[in-house]
Amino acid sequence: MRSRYSAFVKRDAGYLLRTWHPRTRPERLELDAGTRWTGLAILAAEAGSAFHDAGTVTFRASWRGGSLHERSRFERVGGAWVYVDGDFLDD
Predict the structure, then answer these.
(1) Which residues does the UniProt record annotate as the domain YchJ-like middle NTF2-like (predicted)?
(2) Which of 13, 40, 48, 66 is the most exposed place for a label (fewest CB within 10 A)?
(3) Beta pairing class for 54-63 and 37-47
């Protein structure tokens, strides 16, 4: 989760696509150059250890002028954790 947040900060679409599950990954990703990310707070994590094949992370990512509150699902693919999808949460 933290590495994907860092990729959003750096606008590294290639990394984001590589760490996205093949079944849900978009063909391309365009990131808004005007978005200035200001912080990430991990609020909860379930499963996701070396003994799991799936897990969730609830987080709040902030940018100048707003924030994103999401519960994201991750799965292991080829031994690596990848983002599957997420549910937006109300603040």
Answers:
(1) 1-86
(2) 66
(3) antiparallel
